[in-house]
Amino acid sequence: MASKNGIVFEDYFPAMVEKLGTDGFMKELTNGFKLLMDKEKGVITFESLKRNSALLGLQGMSDDEVRCMLREGDLDGDGALDEMEFCTLMFRLSPSLMSNSKQLLEDAIFDEL
């Protein structure tokens, strides 16, 4: 699967949801965000993504590819990804999760009640 910026990755998210459940999967997304974010700013910046890209197996990414990845997920135009933008981007990059997103949302809401 490829994103708009041409980066191709294997979609493991549906298997992760099946194995971890909705809460476990969302916790893993949160952990991924924290791993990539700038600790002082609380968001994923160009610098923090570039610095930590090897953790994703993307150590060969050019600066333009890193910027493109940020732009793809940056919904508010501030040049960085907050946790919601990161999670939204991860869902958008997984067609299987997008097709099941309504059920995942309902599961998450009803688990809270």
UniProtKB/TrEMBL annotation:
<protein>
    <submittedName>
        <fullName>Uncharacterized protein</fullName>
    </submittedName>
</protein>
